Amino acid sequence: MKRNQTHVTEFILIGFSMFPELQPFLFVTFFIMYILTLMGNTLIMIVIGLDQSLHVPMYIFLFALSVSETFYGFAIVPKMLVDLVSVSKIISFAGCAAQMIFFLGLGGTNCLILTFMGYDRFLAICYPLRYPILMNVRVIVWLVAISWVGGFFISLTEAAVVFTVPYCSSNTINHFFCHMRTVVKLACSDDNTAEMIVSVTSTVGLAGSFLFIMLTYAFILSTILSIPSTESRQKAFSTCASHLTVVIVHYGFAAIIYFKSNTKDSSDNDTLVSLPYTIITPFLSPMIFTLRNKDIKIAVSKVVSQKIFPSMI
User: Fold this and answer.
1) CA within 20 to 30 Å of 287's CA: 22, 196, 238, 276, which one?
2) Which stretches of 52-150 are assigned E, i.e. beta strand?
3) Per residue in 191-223, pLDDT tens?
4) Angle, helix 137-163 to helix 57-84, in steps of 10 degrees
5) Dist. CA 135–CA 15, nearest whole Å
């Protein structure tokens, strides 16, 4: 059975309309967090680019992650900020599709880069003698390329499923961006095949990459515990600490969104539930990598003093 159909050319993003009195505060808060996120990722990219000592696999992957997370923010936050201070919260059908493609594609890219960062630490700690051969520049380039291609292949597949189903006159999205699960609920058909495909693909993708990372860390932990020197054990684990922290934050918040109940009623709080994954995680990631990594902190100090403000030293 299908509901009365009208060709949908645009969607209305409800966003934070249910909290009108909080929208000025939310705008200021999210704007500051977004600027700090951009500054943090930009700082990481500049420091890694200028400091030759950081031109090693671990930090090349971090550079790639910072690039991906910067574009990830572009896909969501500017439109959300505009909607917070606008009466009209409309997004075109094509614009909604583009936003979803880039959000899913860059989110998938982030997951794959984090996965390959875990694989890099696994090789470095478990196979230190073979590491320079196993993780050379050519391999790194291929892995970063696979992250981008893989992320956008998944996003294009999911977006194709979402936007090839017919849509009815109802075009109100109960979210601050075109989240696939929220959009697909507006489909005219009572057949929930598209919704099921989207949910299964997202769940399998997230769970698969997370389990692979946890498997690599199981081997890493086993190897670290076998090291006789306490100092060597601490040094080995310190190279993984920031990555593991970001993984826990990233996948923990993602699990709240993708593994929760997918019933129609559960979408009512999707706006608030999605905030940690779309706003807070990108905000925390550069801070964690900067503040919990000794090499990055030293490199930041060096670049700031020698490259940015040389006249002050």
Assistant:
1) 22
2) 90-92
3) 677 778 888 888 888 889 999 999 999 999 999
4) 30
5) 44
